[in-house]
Specification:
Layout (H helix, E strand, L loop, with lengths): L2 E6 L2 E6 L10 H16 L5 E6 L4 E3 L14 H8 L4 H4 L5 E5 L2 E3 L1 H7 L3 E5 L3 E3 L13 H8 L2 H10 L3 E2 H7 L4 E3 L4 H14 L2 H15 L3 H16 L2 H11 L10
Parallel strand pairs: 2-3, 3-5, 4-6, 5-7, 6-8, 7-10
Antiparallel strand pairs: 1-2, 8-9
The chain binds ligand LSS4RXG7.
Ligand LSS4RXG7 binds next to strand 6.
């Protein structure tokens, strides 16, 4: 399978599985990912996802340039039907954690930028190198990178195609944690399990408030987040959370 999915304890583990090609995205991988993200978004048993790459060298190096299919229709038809090929499928209120285990290049870094948490192994490298292959970081890279790291760093990366190291990524805030390669999967699992043990509607509302609020004037963001708080106030899970606290036991959340 070009992409593997395992679901355990409310966590979907999504692994790009073409290590021989640096987990680059061939048409089969893209089709698998489309199905997998649809499942993650709609399966009530899944509360959070972890995206990583198989092997120790690469998270994902973007489009498989050796297998990129020849277009069969004009760009207008594709664009107006699908928009971006992968990232819309990652748009959901359930959190996605990128566990970046090596090169995150081109579309690979762009997928990581679409995730909510980014953690990396110490051997990871990050780049939007599309200018070197006569393309453009068209999966949001030109928009997301300058919003994720300082403008001067983003422009250097975008215009020169130069990569940065895991330590630099940590310094610029592109990732939250850098660990030895052997510790990455465990760290991803521990963050995912913490998120999965929290109230699912609360987690999703919090992501929505943070993501949508970022592009609102502060006053609007505050009002919007208060409305979301009100939406959660009447949930069964909130009653259960408060009750369990009083009874000194772990809450049992149902997403209701
Ligand atoms: C990452 C590297 C610097 C690693 O170099 P290294 O020397 O360590 O390893 P290699 O020998 O180069 O790689 C091993 C093996 O993997 C194959 N490989 C690696 N990456 C790719 C790839 N992207 N496509 C196909 N094959 C790949 C490599 O050929 C080797 O195979 P072998 O010869 O052994 O059979 C280095 O690998 C590197 O620079 N890779 C390319 C990174 C890159 O340029 N990525 C950008 C691709 S373009 C893109 O992602 C786009 C996304 C997009 C935008 C908009 C809409 C949709 C998609 C743009 C686009 O598609 O136009």
């Amino acid at each position: 399978m070009p992409v593997m999915l395992e679901v355990s304890n409310h966590v979907a583990y999504v692994t790009l599985n073409r290590p021989e090609a640096m987990n680059s995205l061939d048409p089969e991988s893209t089709a698998d990912l489309t199905e997998i993200w649809a499942r993650v978004r709609t399966d009530p048993d899944i509360r959070v996802a972890v995206l990583t790459g198989a092997g120790e060298k690469a998270f994902c190096t973007g489009t498989d340039m050796k297998k990129a299919p020849t277009p069969t229709e004009c760009m207008a038809a594709t664009y107006l039907r699908d928009g971006q090929p992968i990232l819309p499928h990652m748009k959901m209120w359930k959190p996605i954690i990128a566990a970046i285990n090596g090169y995150a290049v081109g579309g690979g870094l762009e997928m990581a930028l679409a995730c909510d948490l980014r953690i990396a192994s110490s051997n990871a490298k990050f780049g939007l190198t599309e200018v070197k292959v006569a393309s453009l970081a068209g999966l949001n890279g030109t928009q997301a990178l300058p919003r994720a790291v300082p403008q001067a760093v983003a422009m250097k990366m975008l215009l020169t195609g130069e990569m940065i190291t895991a330590d630099e990524a940590l310094r610029y805030g592109l990732v939250s944690d850098v660990v030895e390669p052997s510790g990455l999967a465990d760290l991803a699992k521990s963050y995912a399990e913490k998120i999965a043990s929290a109230a699912p509607l609360s987690v999703q509302a919090t992501k929505q408030a943070a993501i949508l609020g970022k592009d609102m004037p502060l006053e609007h963001g505050i009002l919007y987040s208060h409305l979301l708080w009100g939406v959660l106030r009447d949930t069964e899970d909130r009653k259960e959370g408060f009750k369990a606290f009083g009874e000194r036991r772990a809450p049992e959340f149902r997403g209701a």
